[in-house]
Amino acid sequence: MRVDMIRTAVFPHMQAHTNPEMLKPLRPIKLLIIDDSMDFHLLIKTLLEDYGVSCVAATDVVQATSTAVREQPNLILLDIGLPGGGGMLLLDRLKSNLRTTKIPVIVVTAQTTPGLESKARSQGAVAFLRKPIEKELLIDTLRQVLATPPTQQ
User: Fold this and answer.
1) What's the predicted TM-score (pTM) here?
2) Read out DSSP for the chain?
3) From the first residue on, what is the mean pLDDT of each consecutive set of 10 residues in the chain (153 residues)?
């Protein structure tokens, strides 16, 4: 029940007919969700498990850095408002580290600071989504990012 309430809050236009087969990869996909909200972690994990995506979670900059290096995810969802330094600092660290520099990062945030999207993209984010996000937009973005060769990101 709680997941349904969170799902409705974060994905207000979510349609029940979304086909999980459309995102299922040929190889397993590991997603690192970096957000200080455990509700957001649970929601994303619940939404993507039908698509064959396994999720790993981190809630602050220090934990996220070590988790990204250790787990080597295929993709990272990054919130900007994080304890321990903030998401922009973490994005810079991830893109400066040889072990994580090629991992695509999608920024997902509720912040509306002017210029934030262009700053995130200039620091290496491959996409920028605002919360609340629609499920279809998230799925489409994941599909596009995963289909893009690393040299073009």
Assistant:
1) 0.82
2) -HHHHHHHHH-TT--TT--GGGT--SS-EEEEEE-S-HHHHHHHHHHHGGGTEEEEEE-SHHHHHHHHHHH--SEEEE-SS-TTT-HHHHHHHHHHSTTTTTS-EEEEE----TTHHHHHHHTT-SEEEESS--HHHHHHHHHHHHHS-GGG-
3) 46 47 64 95 90 92 96 96 89 96 96 94 96 89 86 57
